[in-house]
Amino acid sequence: MTQMVHPETMDLADVFYQGQTLNSQGDYDAAIAAFDAVLNAQPDASDAWVEKGHALVSLGRFAEARTCYDQAIAHAPQDPVNHYSLGWADYSAGDYAGAIAAFERTLELETDFPNAHYCLGLCHFALAQYEEAIGFFRHALDLQADAVDAWYCQGYSLYATHRYEGAVQHLNHVLELQPNYQEAYVLRGDALTALGDFEAASNSYDGALGVDDQNAAVWLKWATGMMQLHRYQEALTGYEQAASLEPDHWEAWCGQADAQTALGEFETAIAHYDKALELNPFADAAITGREAAVRKQNGEDAAVDSPSDQANAAAEALAYVQQGHELKTTDPAAALAAYAQAVALDPSNWEAWYGQAGCQLKLGEFEAAIASYDQAVALNPNSYGAWFNRGVALKNLNRLADAVSSYDRALELQPDDFRAWNNRGGVLVSLGRIADAIACFDRVLEINPKDAKAQQNRAILQKRLEASGG
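Above: the chain's sequence. Below: its structure in token form.
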């Protein structure tokens, strides 16, 4: 319940103190009323402006808080607290550039102002400027060696810049300071995975589950680690746990299917890939996994011979494919290295070629991507994703006629995929085949009538066609 403030019966110092107390108790509206009472009597009270700003920040009213801090700075421009408070309001509102300017001004006024270096690190961290963030976090840790969040953010910044061993060392220290820091266990597991130490990574994910075993994302990572260790039954259990916690998580269903494929349970795997594709029709991992399961169910991936060395190489290649899947979103270069290892171990693994091609495409290595997609479709001619993405790579090299042919093959496999029709139409425009391009966009709008891109492109092309007398 909001407390009433009666400034007429109190002196200003008492009203200010009561406002601070109300702020600390979370009664922010009453606190604001108290600070307003002080400011009505003494408009240049910069400390009251700051405290009122703090209450407004707690209420998420950042623009009003910023106005308060501006007033405090106007009345006391040399007080670093005022600039620091303004920086925190800007940071909380997502204005990282404004926050950086305010925190830098804070440090100009007081070189080692508490938390200012850390907050500058947070701003650069939020902007993905990790090298800059590392310098500020390091300075913050020089000032306060037990600042656990600074250790974590420093570790994350090292991970994001691919310095995985340094990240592990920092995260070890986080867990020494705070053993129940779940995010540190998870990130340490990710760094160990990037280093290829799957056993240690799984142990780190175990630690995270020891803190909270109701986190589907952690179960997914743990299960993927089990896949990389070829412990497929345990992996299946982990994916099932993730799906039970988040039934709409397509990756949990796809993971179950991957494990069941590895266990030879192809029919169930295909059903689970179908479930994943219901939730995300464009999930490449589910599309390629389902295609592989169907081929194996039909005996199409049988080896010419089967010595134990070949079987071991195929199993190790599968682990690298799983590692590539884990890394491809956050670190395509590291994922590419994993897929390349898989290809070297088992050149008949079309999924490894497909994953390698996807990373090469993302990294702008279009010629190499086309070569890898060629290998993928040679091994699995019915891979819609390989034909589609091959078309994307060809378009980027201005091999337009070849791109159209690749999209045509993709559309033979999935005639109702509006993305391929959209892309095909765009290439036809570049070839000057305006009427054919319009037909593609018409097909897009049959499938997806609200597609704004197709609507706009069709309207522009229709005008161009009419103007040319076509």
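The chain has 26 helices and no strands.
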